[in-house]
Each structure stands twice: as C-alpha cells, then as structure tokens.
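Input (structure):
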C-alpha cells in the first residue's frame, strides 16, 4: 500500500510540475493573423565604414492596413558572403506616416563587407493586440514594393558618390543633344561659306 501511495504521489507531482515547465518562445502566427513588412528601403546603398545607413520599413496587416508597433522595436540582420551581424529589439522611429518607421545604423568594422542584404528578422514586429510578423526574414527582394532596395555595398573603398552608370543616365541625353546642336551649327556655317564662294 505504501508503494502505491508513493507512486501516486510521484504521478501527482509529475502532473503538477508538467504545468509549471516554462514554454519556449511563441510561434510566429500563420498568414492572415500576422503582421507583414511590405517595404525595406535603405539609403545610401554604397557606404564606407563609419558611414550611416537609414532604412525605412512599412509594417502592415495582411489586408494592407498600416500597423502600429508596440513596442517600437524591430530586429534586423545584415548578411553577406563575409558574414552576418544581427541586432535584436532595435528601436525604430515612427515617421508620421501610418505604418512607416525608420532604423538608423552606423557601419562599424565588425560588419560584413561587400554586397550585404539588410532584412527584418522573422517575427520581430508586434502590436499591442499580440499580432506578430513577418512570418520570414524580409528584405527588398521579397517585399511587394518593386522600388525598394535593401542590398548595400559596404566597404572601406565603397563609392560615396553617384556611379558612372547613374551619371550617364542623368547627363548623357543633354550632352548628346548639345553635341548634335554643335554639329548642326557647324554644318550650317560650312554650308553658308560654300554658298558665298
């Protein structure tokens, strides 16, 4: 009888202790019950060590309604072929536009260099109602906003000014038009001289 009481007591203790075992972190909810990030845009995209990158994100519900973060923190990961660097629960600043927040980061010598992708970490956004998201790491390659860009070039020699392609795109057409006008004027002058002789 004593053995049966001992076994019964042990079973009761195991049963009670089973309810007090701390559980792991909550799972990020499935689609339609979560928050989503539909924009991750960083500027500048070329940055030297010691420079500052400002990233704008947009947090929404699955129906596109802007979300208000609570707390106003998000986790970010910087990943490239040279390694990764993660920042958990980083403060973000509301921009005044619903759902839009900015994250400012100074690039130090322990960041990966070369081509680096900045992502919002899965399940690191939350609101006051207990909604979480995004359901996976989110960068500009996977957002629904085609114009955003969170792929950066980081390094001691990264250019800080416009690239050659950007300069050609900006000034190429006006320079071409000026050259054509000069050629046309020269041809008119030469034609006028031929008529006089």
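Output (sequence):
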């Amino acid at each position: 009888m004593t053995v049966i009481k001992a076994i019964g007591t042990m079973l009761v203790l195991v049963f009670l202790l089973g309810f007090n075992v701390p559980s792991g972190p909550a799972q990020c909810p499935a689609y339609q019950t979560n928050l989503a990030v539909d924009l991750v845009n960083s500027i500048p995209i070329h940055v030297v060590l010691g420079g500052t990158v400002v990233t704008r994100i947009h947090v929404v519900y699955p129906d596109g309604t802007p979300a208000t973060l609570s707390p106003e923190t998000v986790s970010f990961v910087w990943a490239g072929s040279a390694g990764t660097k993660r920042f958990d629960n980083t403060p973000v600043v509301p921009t005044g536009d619903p759902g839009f927040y900015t994250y400012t980061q100074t690039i130090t010598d322990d960041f990966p260099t070369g081509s680096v992708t900045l992502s919002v970490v899965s399940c690191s956004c939350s609101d006051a109602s207990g909604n979480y998201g995004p359901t996976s790491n989110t960068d500009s390659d996977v957002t629904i906003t085609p114009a955003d860009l969170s792929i950066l070039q980081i390094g001691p020699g990264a250019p800080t000014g416009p690239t050659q392609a950007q300069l050609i795109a900006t000034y190429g057409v006006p320079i071409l038009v000026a050259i054509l006008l000069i050629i046309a004027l020269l041809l008119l002058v030469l034609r006028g001289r031929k008529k006089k002789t």
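Notes: The two ends are 135 Å apart (CA to CA). The CA atoms of residues 47 and 127 lie 32 Å apart.
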